[in-house]
Amino acid sequence: MPGLTTMLVAVLPWASSPVPPMKLCSGKRTASAMPLAAKKRSASSANHQGRGRALTAATATAPASCHDDDQRPRLQTLELLRFLEEDGWVEDQMLSLLTPVDEAWQPADLLPTFAVAAEEQRAQVAELQARAAGVPDELLVCLVGNMITEEGLPTYMTMGNRIGPAEGVTDATGRDGHGWARWLRGWTAEENRHGDLLNRYLYLCGRVDMRQVERTVHHLLRRGMSMTEPSCPYHASIYGAFQERATFVSHAHTARRAALHGDACLAKLCGVIAGDEKRHEVAYTRVVARSFEADPDGVVRALAAVMRAKVTMPGERMTDGRDDSLFDHFSAVAQRAGVYTAADYGDMVEHFVRTWRVAGLQGLSGEGRRAQDYVCGLPRKIRRMEELAHDRAAQKEAQSVSISWVFDRPVRLH
Ligand SMILES: [Fe+2]
Ligand SMILES: [Fe+2]
After folding, report:
1. Do 42 and 285 touch, CB atoms closer than 8 A?
2. Torsion, CA 264, CA 150, CA 148, CA 386, rounded to 10
3. What ligand has the least distance to the C-alpha of 25?
4. Where does Fe cation 1 bind (predicted)?
5. Which of 191, 209, 297, 320 is catalytic?
6. Is 119 among the annotated ligand-binding positions?
7. Catalytic (active site) residue 293
8. Out of 5, 6, 170, 247, which one is annotated catalytic?
9. Are 297 and 71 in contact (CB under 8 A)?
10. Looking at residue 228, what is its pLDDT?
11. Across residues 274-287, what is the average pLDDT?
12. How confident is the model at residue 312 (pLDDT cuts 50, 70, 90)?
């Protein structure tokens, strides 16, 4: 997860976007799941509208909601989650995206092994350090920021288990057998490898002040994350889709830049993490797509609300105990390094508008049409604002800041 959409708050203060987290997705599991998706849709999509109407009636008096008008989403959170799990949909469309443990990569696969003689161990570490020597500080700062965000996983798992406080939706026992509980634990298990892998690489490369990095993780976990309270059943999955894609983009860009600087090891490990994030993005994208089938008006209004809201990022509260603007500095470095930029955010909004076929939605309410127009016009607005921000940045004098993660060496902000 953990993502960087959040960075736009610093880069483009007006830009509201969802949170934090690329692959060389094998595509194998995704591909195998697609026929199931198609099959399931053909079997049940004809019922979605009717079911949506029935649920509307059933929940018409329920308190809600996500909007500041009198429109209500058709589905309340619990009904949405239960609706999505009907006919084994979560199993077919989400759990099938998780990699079985026996087939999954582990951090030990990608780092020096200690199952060899001492001399060979030293040679492998020396090779890793020699390659890492060519990685610029700005890329290291991006890597550390991404790693710290990944290490906030205990917070994110807790948040994930708060979305649907009811039997069959939360993992009440910690070993529940229903789909959502299995997804949350499976997703967490995959995410847990991301922080481990980046953390061990950074420790072995010898280029960063690990104590400062560890202090930042410690602070972040103690401080938690401030996230806009989801006020609509569709917010969490929309947020999740953006978050996972943002992380995918960020890790993939880091991989590409690491390769350009001659560190094939770093490129590979960022690439496999990106692959995980891509599969997670697919999962949440499917949830939103299925929600659109059931309640297009409610979901497009929720999408507009998420885009308009000031969304705080998972790592936004990070500090090393010295720099109160550490997250802003990390975001500015990532923008300048091209690891995650305002233009990436515009591309992402455009991607989801196209994927969810927002422009073609029919039968919307007045509020729904306004939300549709707003969302469809957003990529163009973001690009225009990004150009203006770029022009302003070009006129500024170069500015650097000392970052403790890299032993207080100065790193360019712009
Ligand atoms: Fe992820
Ligand atoms: Fe991750």
Report:
1. no
2. 80
3. 1
4. 150, 191, 194, 277
5. 191
6. no
7. no
8. 247
9. yes
10. 61
11. 98
12. low
- 138 is annotated as contributing to ligand binding: no
Query: How far apart are the CA of 327 and the centre of ligand 2, in A?
Result: 18
The secondary structure element, H or E, covering residue 401 is: strand 400-403
- What share of the chain in percent tops pLDDT 90? 64
Model confidence pLDDT, tens digit, residues 71-115: 567 777 778 888 888 888 999 999 999 999 999 999 999 999 999
Omega prior to 237 cis, within 30 of 0:
no
Gap from CA of 132 to ligand 2 centroid (Å): 22
Helix axes 179-205, 137-151, angle to 10 degrees: 150
CATH topology of domain 7-45+52-412: Ribonucleotide Reductase, subunit A (1.10.620)
Q: Active site includes 312?
A: no
Known active-site residue 247 = yes
Q: Which of 334, 336, 323 is nearest to 414 (CA)?
A: 336
pTM score of the predicted model:
0.83
356: which residues sit within 8 A by CB, 6+ positions away?
285, 288, 289, 292, 303
- Rounded to the nearest 5 percent, the helix, strand and coil shares of the chain are 65, 0, 30
Q: Has 235 been labeled as part of a binding site? A: no
Burial code (b: 16+ CB inside 10 Å, e: under 16) for 282-293 equals bbbbbbbbbbbb
Q: CB-based burial of residue 28 (10 Å sphere; 0-12 exposed, 13-18 middle, 19+ buried)?
A: exposed
Q: Is 6 a catalytic residue?
A: no
φ, ψ of residue 401 to 5 degrees: the values are: -140, 145
Active-site annotation holds for 280? yes
Consult the annotation and say whether 127 binds a ligand: no
164: confidence class by pLDDT, cuts 50, 70, 90: low
Quote the DSSP letter at residue 410: E
- At position 316, the amino acid (one-letter code) is E
